[in-house]
Amino acid sequence: MQSFQSCRIALVLFLLVATSCSPTIASTPTPSVERAADIPAVAIIEPMATATLTKLASPSPGAKQTSVATPTPIRQVIIDSVPITATISTTNSIYTAFDFLRDYLTNRTYPVIIDGTLRAWTNNSVNVMQYAQPLGGVSYWDFWSELENWDSPFFMYNDDDGNWYPYRYDTVRDAKGKDLQAYLLADRKGPGVMDKLWFTQDAVWMLETEESRKNVGPIEDMTFFNEWGNLDKLGTLRIEVDDKIAYDGPIVDWFSGKALALTPELTQILTWRHREYGSIGSIVPIPYQKHLRVLLYNGSKKPKWFMASGVRFSDTTRLRPFATSDLPIAEMARLAPNVSRPESYINTLDGQRAFDLHADANAPATIRFNGAGTVSALQFSIPKRFDPKQLWLRVKYGDDVGSHVPLIVFFGDQKQLVLHRSAPLGIVESADNFIFYSNLPLPFQNSMTIEIENKSTTAIPFTARIALSNETRNSQLRIQYREMEKLSVYGPDYHIDVPGNGKLVGLVLVSEDQGMDSIPRIVDPKNPNAEDPVKRAWTMGYLEGNLHLFDGTGRERIYGGHEDWADAGFYFNRGYSAPVGGSNRPFGGILRYKDGKDGYATIFRYFNDLSAFRFQNGLQMNFGHGTWNNNFPVKFGVTVYYYKES
Q: What is the DSSP letter of 440?
């Protein structure tokens, strides 16, 4: 396997050239809760005393009627399942943009696990000259400065064959027949799909100094600037698919949903804007059979921070080239509540069952599935008078442990019970209960056991709801959990090694204790009485560190900052999230954040099937932790969610 260091060296060289008994249950002190998101009380349909056919509230009009099973106060449940082979959610051999959206809108994140010819690609503003340094160099120089040319050798991308190229200008002809210079952001051969287009531009907080105000330039409309930054200064966005213009119009219209006639709800789950998230982006898939080009022209500013990412398929893959008229907006709108109200997704599924269980101090509550199938959705409802931090979740496939983590870790943060809502996982509350929900499919091939362990001395009751399907796939959901550990000043990247073949579908990074007082002060070589302005550190600056993903076959993806892989910008903390986390996206955001010397941050990102990083022969994950040469001795911990080939 190619090592992380050898990847950097190669780049440097290139640049240089249960039972039925009922225990006595006592209450414990009400646990502290961090309400990271502005989540209203959620009405959850509780298991009923008798089995009755009930029309459950469905976020998907026309969903089938389902019944809730009679809850049984027991410690162990055994369920038999007869398997069928799952199929990918398309009836066509020619894939469309909607085919790549369907899994996101229906929470089916596992249909395609490995394609030996599929490769991830990334075009972004990572400063490869700095990144090639042994410890990552200056990590925050991942943007084009005002005076820097677009074709600067500091910013490069690698093609499907691993060759590095600087970005370049091109010429486009506008609607009036005038030839104009354009910034070429992406030029990719097909067949493939672009899964994301993301920008971070000048922001309100940049108006704090005279120099930055000069860089931002005149602001005609402060309300617009608060909403979008100066995105409109980039001018016209052109997307060319198979040598035809698929979109050619104001860049703001693409991200506002106007260009695609998205409903307000679809706009919220497929795009985002500066005020909400510190960045501007879209995850509308853009399939192309032969060729994709993304350009900007006719603006007064160049892009500073950007990312376009996607995948390249085998040459035999057939795709319908993207057109703005292709999207079935009505069908997408029907499915959108599965994402915007994910805690209700289970209500739309057949095969629902519910059980009243209790976890004793010396015996876990157990749900065992015989045979093969898939748990399509899972919920635990725990009375608020008990502390969920005392519970651990174990999932076993046969005798093989796929995950064994604290319950709050599986559903969110490592340290706090944080209320939040995302499409695959979340924690919400009703008047009396905390509801932990998961829409990540749990396929199993030869039995599966879900156990809830209790680390306290007091028995804890809870209700489990499941939706079971008898379809299955050759994959299993796995969790790699690592508690926080203290890193070293100028130490190596924080490293995670995931074995086997699979697909990365989720990542939570927990950080605290950044150790500002332990960071050496570097003297400015031009002024011995001042700190070096380039190698300096500032509070929370470790979030500037890059994330590098690569596998044993050469697939890789580099993110130019820890907020970047969550698709956000500016650390989320400049008024974009009020309260903190309130503007989280359905797929990512921040669970906890505090600025200052005693600051901390928990960042999360969940990847749908298209954006998930596929890996073979192991996945290496390297997290930078500083503004210069990993200079922060911060504490890092992670939770990694992935489907492993079984």
A: S
- Which residues, 6+ apart, have CB-to-CB distance to 374 below 8 Å? 86, 441, 442, 443, 444, 468, 469, 470, 471, 472, 473
Kindly state the helix (H) or strand (E) to which residue 5 belongs, with its residue range.
helix 4-16
Token pair belonging to 44? 């959850």
Report whether 196 contacts 280 (CB < 8 A).
Answer: no
Greater confidence, 65 or 513?
A: 513
**φ, ψ of residue 62 in degrees (nearest 5):** 90, 5
Q: How far is CA 152 from the centre of its chain?
A: 30
Q: Are 110 and 502 in contact (CB under 8 A)?
A: no
- In the chain, the largest separation of any two C-alpha atoms, in whole Å, equals 81
Is the pLDDT score of 356 beyond 70?
A: yes
**pLDDT tier for residue 215 given thresholds of 50, 70 and 90:** confident
CATH code: domain 33-88+341-472 is 2.60.120
Residue 626 and residue 136 in contact, taking contact as beta carbons nearer than 8 Å: yes
Q: Which of these, 491, 459, 305, 465, lies nearest to 386 by C-alpha position? A: 459
Distance from C-alpha of 390 to C-alpha of 411, rounded to nearest angstrom: 14
In the chain, where the domains are located? 33-88+341-472
Looking at residue 575, what is its pLDDT?
A: 53
pLDDT digits (tens, 9 = 90+) for 237-255: 999 999 999 999 999 999 9
- Does pLDDT of 50 surpass 90? no
Residue 269 has pLDDT above 90, yes or no: yes
Q: Are 365 and 381 in contact (CB under 8 A)?
A: no
453 touches 391 (CB < 8 A) = yes
